[in-house]
Predict the structure.
Amino acid sequence: MTRWLVLFMMTGCAGEVVDTDADTDSDSDTDTQMSMDTCEARFTVLQKDAYAERPGRTSELWPPHTTTALEFRCDTEEEWTTTSLPNHGTTVEEIDEDGTLLLDVMTTSSAAAMTPDELTELVSTYEACSCEEGTAFLSMDSLEADLIASLVGELSTYLEANLTCTGDTTGADVAQLLVDADIAGALAVIPDCTFATGFSWEGAFDAALATVGGALEDFHVCNNDAALQRAMWTTFLSEGSLDSCDATAATCSGPRWYFAP
């Protein structure tokens, strides 16, 4: 029932072979060869409300689960090939019982041109890009029942003390909805609630996780992975370098509850 509280927390592309013995004096032959040496790629961010059973992203007040995807094609291909990273969670193909995709596409970058060799290196680096080698993914597997109970209790205490809601709802009510894993119910009332100055959802989750033991900077969640993957993409575009996918970077240190696409 409380598992979600803890867990919030290639295809290659090559140009068509060009006959180097053919006459290359013609402008049309040169243009054709250049076209065959051209690929393009684009980066997509997809999200849903973390641990909500319904599809899509419905509230910026609630932490998201973030998945990323890299689409690419070469030469005159019309269809995009997609490789994606679910980041310990929802895949791009997952649907609900009605056949609706669980993830919303939040942003897709403009296509960037590159050579086949550059694309091959980009795809290879992207598919291995995660925080896994730098920090531990925050999961249920390493926690005992008493630690989970302590975590939930701390979250409830924080919300009861620092969250105020309109109407008949109280911070304690919101805490109970979360304990019961009633995410839909929590999302329905959260917009009518505000934290006292200096307190926040990030603070609530951090306070709860402090009961896990160890430093928060030793853990990461899905949004850390997504941030690292986007940094890899933007650095590749601006500098032509793929060195930014570094699991020891600060991006991977400490749970990143929110990720703005």
Summary: The radius of gyration is 23 Å.
